[in-house]
Amino acid sequence: MHLVLLPSLSVEERARPYQPLHVDLEDYVRNSFLPIAFLVAEKTLLDFDPLDIDGRVFLDLLHFLLCHPALLPQQIVGDEVYNAVEALWVQYGLPSVDFEDLAARFPSMLTPSNPSSTVQLTMLPFSNPVFDRPLSSINTANIGTDTEISFDGTEFNMPFVDGHHWHNHRRAILPKHLGGEDAAPQDDWQRKRQLRSDQRLMSKMQWQAESLTGALGRPLQRITIVSVPQSSKRAIIPQRATQESSKSKKVKKEHVSKAEEIRRQHAAKKQTDQNLSNATWWLEILKTLNELSSTASRVASVERLLNNSRTDQGWLAVDIQLYRLHLEFSLWIEHPDADSNNPEKQAEVRDSFTVTIMRLVKDIYERGDLSPAAQSVLETALHVLGFKNYASSFLSASPRTNNDDKKLSFKFVKLARSKSASPIYKFMEITEDPIIWQLRLFGQYMDRSMDSEYDHRVSFKPDAWQRRVLDSIDQNHSLLVVAPTSAGKTFISYYAMEQVLRASDEGVLVYVAPTKALVSQIAAEVYARFSKDFRSGGHTCWAVHTRDYRIHNPQNCQILITVPEMLGIMLLSPPLAQVWTPRIKRIILDEIHTIGQQEGGAVWEQIILLAPCPIIGLSATIGQPEEFNAWLKSVQEAHGYQHTFIHHAHRYSHLRKYSYILDTKASPFKGLDNFQNTGRLHFLHPASMLSFGGRTLPPDFSLEAADCLTLFTALVSQRDRVQFDSDSFDPMRFFNQTALLTQKDILGYEAILRDTLSEVIAISDPHDESSPLNAIVRQVQDPAIAEMTSAQQNDVPSPKQILSNLIHLVSDLHTSGDLPALLFHFDRSGCEIAAKSLVTALDNAEKAWQGSSPQWKKKLEAWTEWKAGAAARANAASKLLKQNKRLAKDAQEHSEATWEESFNPRDPLPQFSFLGPKCSKSQLDEAIRDIEWTSTPRWAITALRRGVGVHHSGMNKHYRTAVESLYRMGHLQVVFATGTLALGINAPTKTSVFCADSPYLTALMYRQCAGRALMDAAGNPINLFGLATHLYYTEPSNFAIVVLLRSGAIHDICMHPSMETAKRELLILLCHLFGRRYVPKVYTSGMNVKLLLAKSPSKVLLPPLPACAEKVLLAHNKEILRVFKGYALAYAAEHMAALEADRSLPMSKKVYSGAGSSPSPFRTYLKSTSIAAVARSPFVCNSGHNDEFANVEELSATSRSGIQLRGHGIPSLQHIIANPGSREKPFPLNAYLLDFYTHGQTQALAAANGIRRGDVWYLLQDFTLTLKTIRTSIEQFLQSISAASGASAETAEENDLADDLDLPGMDDDEDGETNSFQRPVGASDRDWRVFEVINAITKEFDEKYRAMWA
C-alpha cells in the first residue's frame, strides 16, 4: 500500500516529522519486518522503477491505520490505490490482513499536532538616502524589530568619515575644500631631497621606457596631448600615417593653396637634402665595412645599423637591407659545408641560410619603396632559391613601388649567369617543393594577419577582430576580449587611454593589473607613450598606486595604474565617491582571468560589481569564456552599459613543446666555447600527447605548420585503415603554389587534419597497440621518447638532478639559438636556488679554466704590466701637453684604444656567461649601480653580470624592474621567475622552461558580499566602517575584529595587568583572524611536534582563541545566521508565487507534484500535518527538517530554489570559531606569525612552521600592513572622541621613508613611528589601553619584519 501510494503524493505531502512507534512494534518492524520486506522487494517488486520507499510516510500510514482500525483500507487510501494493492495481493496469493488485531496489540502513540513552521517572518529595518529609493518596492508590512547584540564595552558607534589614509591617519585623502589638508611646507633641504628623488624616478622611468618596443619592435614614440577646454565633448583621435597602397583608392584631385604649395616645396627640398646627406653617410659606412676582415664582422655591424632610426625610412632602408641580404649570400658561399659531399651537412646548411634569406626577402618586400634595381635583385634571389614563381605575388603585395632608376650603392654578389640567368650555385636551390619547404621550416615566419585592413585610428593594419574592438570602444561599450598572448591585445588599453586623455582634463581611466611587476611595466609604457600639458597645476597624466607605494597623486591624474585591492578600497570610500569616482570613464581589467584564483579573486568580482563605468576585460586564458562573459554581460547591462564579447582564438606566436631528458651522470661543464649540444631536448608532437582514454580531441589541440606536415605523412601511412583522401589533402595540391603561405591558410588545413584525426580516434581502441591511432602516434613521436617506458616518462626527478642538469640545459638552448629563456619555478626559494646553482656552475668552470689556461695567465701578466706603466704614460702625456698643446691634442685624437683599457679581470668571461650578444657593458654597469644601494643580495647582482636574473614578488621592486628592462634589452638571457613574470609582462622570449611541478595553479575563488553589520539603525556608517572597508579583502575577519572592538572583548584582553600578557593574547586573537594558514594533520603528530619543539624556538601550533573573544564571535555568528535566515524567510514569503517549485529531482528530472490523484482521508491527513516550510526545500523537509537551520552552510545548501544564497558570500565566522579537527577546521592553525613575533627568525619559520622561504616576506608584509590598518583606525576613533569633546590631538609630521626603503620619487604608503601620538582629551582608560597594546604589537612586529630584509 505504501509503495503504490507514494507516486501519487506531492513532495510537500511527504515532508513529514518523525512519529515514534510503540516500543514492541518498533522492535518488530526493525528486526523482523523490514529485513524480509527488502528481500522480497528485491526479487518481486522490480516493476516499480525506480523503487521508491519513504520511511516517514510508511510510519504515518501505519499510525493512521492503527488509529482508525474500524475503517476499511479503501476508505483510508481511496479506491484507486486500494485496487492497485488488491491486484498485487491477489497476484502473489497473499493472506488477508487484520488491522484491528494489530491495533489491539500495538496502540498508536500518535499525538495530534501541526508541525508547520512557526518562525516569525521579519524584515530588517534599514534606511539610507542612497538605498531608500531603489528599495522602496519591497513590501515592509512584516517589519519587525531588529535585535542587536548588546555592546557595552566602548562607544564605537560614532558617525564615520573616511577622510584619511588607511595605514596612517595623519595623511588626508581629500582635497582641502572637502576637509583635507595642504601639504606641510618644505624647507630647502626637503625640497632638494624631493627634487633629487623626482629626478632619479624620471631617470629610472626613462630607462625602463627605452627598453619597451611597439608591435613592430621599434622604440615607442611619445604623443603629446594638449589640454582640453571644458566645452569639448568628445575625444578626437587624429588619423595615423599609414602605408596604404596608392592602388587601393582613387583619390580626388585636391585643391592646393599657394601657402600649402610653398610648404610642400620646402618639405621636398628638405627631403632632397636629407637624401644627399644619407647617400654620403652610407658611402662612408660602406667604405668602413669593406675594410673589415670578415663577412661575419660586416653582418654584426650592419645589424647594429639597422637599429638606427636613420636607417628606417626611404631608399636608405631598402639599400641597407639589400646589403644585409648580400652579406647573407656571401656567408653561404663562404661556408665550408655549403657544397659539401655530405648530403646531410649540405642540407642542414641550406635549411639555415634559406630561412634567413627568405625572411630578409619577405621583410624587404613588405617595407616597399622598391626601385627597379631592388626588384631585380630580389627576383634573382628568389630564382636561385627555387621560388621563381613567387616574385609576382611578392611585388603585388608590396605597399609601394619606386620608379626612380636608382642603382644600388654597392655591388651585389653575383648569383646568376648574365646570359642564361641560370643559377651559379646549384647548392642553393631547395630540393623539395616550395610548399613542403614552407611547412617544414617557415611556419613561425608566416604572415599572421586575419582579414587585416588599414584603419586611420591606429598606425598598423588591424585584423577584423581588432577593428571590432576599436568600434566598441568608440561606442562606449563594455568589452571582454579573449585572445592568446601576442595576438595583439596591447593596443586596446592605449587606444582607450588616448581617448580619455583627449576627451577632457577631468576624465579618469583606471588600469588594474594583478601584479606589481605588471603595474611597473604599464607605468613605464604609459610614460613612454603619452604626455599632456595641463592648463592648471596639480594634475598629472598618470599615477601609480599599490599597497606599497605611490607615484604622483592618484586622485589628480587621468590614468591611474593600480592593483585590484587599492581600487576596491577607493571605490568603497564615501568621500571619494563624491569627488573622484564620478570622474572614472573606463576601467581596464588586465589578466581578468585571475578572478578565478583563490587569493584575490573576490576583489576582482567586487570591482566589477561596483564599477561606475564601462569596463574592458583582457585575457589570454579564460576557461569557458562564454559562461564568464554571460555573467559579465548581465552585470554590465544591469548598470546600463552595452556589452561586447570578442573571442579571437588564434595564436600569433608559435608554442612548440619539448621535453628535456635529464642525465643521471652529467659531465662537467667546461665553458660555452667548447660545449657540444647534448641532444637531450626532444620535440613533443601534439598528436603524440593525446590522452588515449578519451574519445575526442581536446578543445585546445592545435597544430603548427610543421606539425601539419608530419601528421599528414603519418595519416598517409594509415590510409588503408582509415578513410583519408590523401590526394585532395596533399599540401602540394591543397595550397596555392605562387604565394607564401599565411597562418590563415594553415588554420584551414589544420581543421581538416583535426577532423580526420577525430575520426581515427573514434574507430581506434586505445588499448590496442596496433590500432591506427597508436600507429600514427608512434610515427610522429620522437624516437628517444618512444623508447622510454611509461614509468620513465612519468618519473619525477629530484631537485638535485634538476640542478645538476641545469647548466647543460641552458647551454643546449644557447648553442641552438633558443635564448633568451624564462625558467619558471612556482616556488620563490626554488627560483633563487636554481639561479645560484647556475651561476655557481659558471663561476667554478671559469675558475678551473683560468687556473689551467696559459693564455689567461699570459693575458693577465700583460694587463698587469700595462697597468704598472699607467703612471709613466700619464707623466709623458702631461709633459707633452705642457710643451705643445696642439701636438698633445692630435696625439690624443689619433691614439687607438687598447684592449687593456676596457679589461677587468673580475668581469665574467664570455664563454662563462649568458649575457646577450648585444649587451652593453656600460648600460649593465649603470643598471647595477642603480640597485646596489637597495636590499638586493650580492649573489643576485653577481648573477646579473653573468646574464642571469631572478624575478619574484619577494625581490625588491628596483631589482625586479632592472631584470625586466635588462631582459627586454637583451642583456639578460636567462631569468628564473614565478608567475609574476607570466601575467602580461612585456618580456620577449624564445623559450619557456618549467623547472618543477607546483600545486599553486589556478583555482576557483569564491565571491564576497557586503554585510550590514557596520551601519547604525539609520544606515549611517559607524566609526569602524573604515577598518572593515580597508581590510575588505580579508572578509569575514574584517567584520570579526569590528565586532570584537565594539563588544569590549578586545578591551578586556588589553586590560590585563601584564602588558606582555595583553600583547600576547591580542596577537593570538589577531592570528586567528588574519594570515591564517593551516598545518597538515600528518605534520602535527605527537612525535613530530615534540621533535620540532625540541629543535626550534617556534611553537608551530597556534593556541586557542581567548575565551572572551570566542564567546563574542559565537554570539555574532548566531546573529549572522539569524539575519540571513530572516532574509530567506521574508523573501520566500513575499515571492512564493514567483519562486520555482521544488518538485523535480535535479538529475532524473522526475516530478513529484501529486497532480491527478484522487483525494482520501489519509492524504487529507498528510496535507494537514506536513511540515510547511517557507525557505527550506521540500525535498529536504522529507527528512523532517523545517525552517530552523543549524548554520550558514546548511541554510545556503538546503534553501528553496530561487532564493539566491551562496554560503561563501555570507560572512560566517564558523571556520574561525570551529575547533581543530571539525569539518569547518580540519587542521590546526599555524602559529608562524606569533612565532615570528616571539623570535624573529625566518629560518625557523621555514624549518619548523613549514612556511616556504619564498612566501615568508610576502606573508609577513601582509600582516604588517594589517596591523597598521587596525592601529590607524583606532587612532582615528580616538581623535574623533577628542574632536567631539572640543579638544584636538597633537599630530606629528610623517617620517618619509622613500629614500630609505622604496623607489625614489614614490610615496611610501607605510607610516613612520607613532611615538608622538599623545592621548587625546576625552579618551577613556580602556580605549587608550587598546591603542597602547596594538601600537606596541605593530611597532615590535614591524621592527622584526624590517630587520629581516634591511
TrEMBL record:
Q: Cellular component GO terms, alphabetically?
A: cytoplasm
Supply the name of the protein: Helicase ATP-binding domain-containing protein
The family database entries (Gene3D superfamilies) matched by this protein are listed as:
P-loop containing nucleotide triphosphate hydrolases (3.40.50.300)
Ranges for the Helicase ATP-binding domain? 470-640
In its keyword annotation, does this UniProt entry include Signal?
no
Q: Where is the composition biased (Basic and acidic residues)?
A: 254-264
State a single Pfam family of this protein.
Answer: DEAD
What segments bear the compositional bias annotation Acidic residues? 1291-1313
The protein's matches in InterPro entries, at most eight in alphabetical order, are given as: DEAD/DEAH_box_helicase_dom, Helicase_ATP-bd, Helicase_C-like, P-loop_NTPase, SKI2_subfamily_helicases
Query: What organism is recorded for this protein?
Result: Hermanssonia centrifuga
What is the superkingdom listed in this entry's lineage?
Answer: Eukaryota
Report whether Cell inner membrane shows up as a keyword of the record.
Answer: no
Q: What keywords tag this UniProt record?
A: ATP-binding, Helicase, Hydrolase, Nucleotide-binding
| Region called Disordered, residue ranges | 238-270, 1288-1321
One MF term in GO for this entry? hydrolase activity
